[in-house]
Amino acid sequence: MAISLTKDAAERVKSYLVSRGNGIGLRIGVKKTGCNGFAYVVNYADAVDDADNVFEDHGVKVVVDSESLALIDGTEVDFVKEGLNEAFRFRNPNISGECGCGESFSV
C-alpha cells in the first residue's frame, strides 16, 4: 500500500509548508460526493491520528486515513500548472470511471 508524489507535487507541498510556517506534510482523503460517487480531499497535515497511514516520498510525508486508502491505494499525486491554473492531479489505478468535469470518480 502506498501513495506517491511526483517531484513537482513534493516541491509544491514543501514550499507551501515553508510559507505556511507549520505542518508535517500533505493529507489526502476521499469523500462521497459528485455525480460519480467520490471526490479527493486535499489539506495540509498538522498531526497524525491513530487511524492514519503515513507515506514519505521526495522528503514529504503523505497522510491518509485508512478508509480513504482503500479507495486510493497506488495513487500518484502530481502538481500541474496550465496557464494561470494550478492544481494537484491524481493518477488512481483503482478508478472505474470519472465524471466529465473531472471532479469525482467511482471505483
Distance between the termini: 17 Å
SSE sequence, one letter per element: EHEEEEHEEEE
For the record, the CATH class is: Mainly Beta
Broad shape: globular
Low-pLDDT residue spans: none
Largest sheet: 4 strands, mixed
CATH architecture level-2 label = Sandwich
Annotation field: number of helices: 2
Strand content: over 45%
Structural class: alpha/beta
Mean pLDDT: 88
Tally of discrete structural domains: 1
- Quote the CATH topology: Hypothetical Protein Aq_1857, Chain: A
Q: Please state the CA-atom Rg, rounded to the nearest Å.
A: 14 Å
Account of the protein in words:
The two termini are 17 Å apart. The protein is an alpha/beta fold and 107 residues long. The protein is globular. Helices cover 20% and strands 47% of the residues. It has a single domain (4-99), classed as Hypothetical Protein Aq_1857, Chain: A. The relative contact order is 0.26. The protein is built from 2 helices and 9 strands; from the N terminus they run βαββββαββββ. The strands form 3 sheets. A 4-stranded mixed beta sheet has the order 3-2-5-4. A 3-stranded mixed beta sheet has the order 1-6-7. Strands 8-9 form a two-stranded antiparallel ribbon.
Give a brief description.
This protein has 107 residues and is of the alpha/beta class. The chain has helices spanning 7-20, 66-72, and strands at residues 4-5, 25-33, 37-45, 52-57, 60-65, 76-82, 85-91, 97-98, 105-106.
Comma- or semicolon-separated keywords:
alpha/beta; 47% strand; four-stranded mixed β-sheet; Hypothetical Protein Aq_1857, Chain: A; globular; 107 residues; single chain; 9 strands; three-stranded mixed β-sheet
